[in-house]
Amino acid sequence: MSGAVLEPPAAARGLPQPPIGGLRAHADLIFAALGLLAMLVAVLTLAALVLDLAVRGLPRLDLQFLTSFPSRRPSQAGILSAWVGTTLVMLVTAAITIPLGIGAAIYLEEYAPRNRLTDLIEINVANLAGVPSIIYGLLALGLFVYALGLGRSILTAGLTLALLVLPIIIVATREALRAVPPTVREAAYALGATRWRMIADHLLPYSAGGIATGVIIALSRAIGETAPLITIGALTFIAFLPTPPIRPDFPFVSFQWLSDPFTVLPIQMFNWVSRPGTDFLPNAAAAGLVLIVMTIAMNLAAIVIRIRVRRRVKW
CA nearest 180: which of 35, 309, 28, 15? Predict the structure, then answer.
C-alpha cells in the first residue's frame, strides 16, 4: 500500500525481544509433557482393564476350566474346545501367511521392476492392511465356503485370517529389509554372491528381528478376531474336539482335522457375554486371561528370536 508506514523491528526500536532458545525449550517441555500424559492415560487404562479382568476371572481359572467343554451350567463350563480350536486355527494361519508374506515382500523389495504395476500392487497392499475384518469374512464366505467348497472348517478359518494379516506381514517385512544398510548388499555382490545367496545368507539374517516382530504383530491381531470367523460359520457351542492329527496306523498322520468344525476363544467369550444375566461373566473374564497369556507367549517368542539374532549377527 502506498500510504502504509512500515514500522522498524522491535530490536531497532529498542524494545526487548523474547529469547528464541527459551521459547523452543518451553515448546519441547510442553510437547514432552503432553506425550507423557498421553502414554500414562493409555497405560493406566489398559492396566485398569486387565486388573478388572483378573479380579473377575482368576477365581474361575483352574485346571477344570481348561479341560472341560462348554456347558449350560456356569460352574461346569470350560474352554477346552475353544483353546484347542484357537491353537489349530493359528497354526494354519501361520503356516500359510508367514511364507507367503515374507516371499511377497522379498519379491517386491528385491526382484520386482519399478513400474506402474509394481506401484499399484504396493498401494493395494498398503490399503488392504486397513480394510475392516468383516469384509474378509464376507470374501471368505463367498470364495472358500461356497466357490471352493471348503465348508465352515478350520482350514477356511486359517485361510481367512491369513488373508487378513498378510498385508501386515508384507509391509513389516519390507520395512525390515529396507533397514539393512546398502553396504551389506554391495559387500555380498563384491564377493561374487548371487542375488538369492545375498538374500538368504545376509539380508534375511540381518532383518530377522524386524520380520519376527511383524509376524507376531500380525498373529496377535489374528488371534483376537471374531467378526470374520462368525461370518464363515464358526460354532458358538461345540462339545467335541477336532480329529487328532496323529493316527495309530499308517500313514500315522491325518489331515481330517482341517475340515472339522471349530470354535475359538473370542467367539466363546462373545457367547458368554451375550447371555442374559451375569452368571457367565467370570467365565468370559477367565477366557480373556487365557487369550492374553497366549498373545504374550507369542510376543515373548518374538523377543527371544530377536535377541538370538542380534547376538549372532555382527554389523
Answer: 309
